[in-house]
Amino acid sequence: MTAPELSRTIKIRQIRNEAETIEANASERLALAQRFGVAAIDSLTAKIALDPDGPRIAAKGSLNARITQTCAISGEDFPVAIDETIELVFVPAKPAIASVGEEIEIELEREELDEIEYEGDSFDLGEAVAQSLALAIDPYAEGPEADATRKKAGLTSDDAPSGPLAEALAALKKG
């Protein structure tokens, strides 16, 4: 297993009442950009307050990133600002259930949806920040030239039919 590109291990017994600041360096940003399929990650900073409650650690804070993304329509790079709130809970890993040939359906409660399991006496806050960034990136982002590229290619929105049939129908409506 390869190490995460942005790893910041937090020992549970060393958590103090200060916000943790995670700032990705140039090589970490380059590796994350490759992992997430974006042209560049120009900056990535997160400030996270950790609040332990026994083995459960609540993590709340903010993630700020400036990335360069490629437009899904024009193929041109454009800047994107990402400002997200992070709310996670780190919980001890549950023991694996061994069953052969049996499907198990697991239902998660709302408060369990942003839980990240950890093993031992520490967890990786950096990888959690990286995953939060991945979720904030729009994989089909459109840059400022998207509409012009569509128009140049003769593509219009689904709302406005085009072509000979559409023109004939428009003429019938006018006449």
In a few lines, what is going on in this structure?
The protein is of the alpha+beta class and 175 residues long. The protein is 23% helix and 34% strand. The longest helix has 12 residues, at 125-136.
Q: What's the domain count?
A: 2
The percentage of residues in β strands lies in: 25-35%
Distance between the ends: 69 Å
The biggest beta sheet is recorded as:
5 strands, mixed
Instruction: Please tell me what the overall shape is.
Output: elongated
Strand order of the largest sheet: 2-3-4-5-6
Which sequence of SSEs, written as H and E, runs from N to C?
Answer: EEHEEEEEHHH
By DSSP (H or I, 4+ residues per run), the number of helices equals 4
Q: What is the count of β-strands?
A: 7
Q: Structural class of the secondary elements?
A: alpha+beta
Portion in helices: 10-25%
In the predicted model, the low-confidence regions spanning at least 5 consecutive residues are none
Task: Describe the structure in your own words.
The chain is of the alpha+beta class and 175 residues long. It folds into two domains: 9-95 and 102-144, no CATH class; 145-175, no CATH class. It is 23% helix and 34% strand. The chain has four helices and seven strands; from the N terminus they run E-E-H-E-E-E-E-E-H-H-H. The strands form two sheets. It has a five-stranded mixed sheet with strand order 2-3-4-5-6, covered by helices on one side. A two-stranded antiparallel ribbon has the order 1-7. A hairpin with a 2-residue loop joins strand 3 (40-53) and strand 4. The longest helix is centred in the C-terminal third of the chain and has 12 residues, at 125-136. The mean pLDDT is 86.
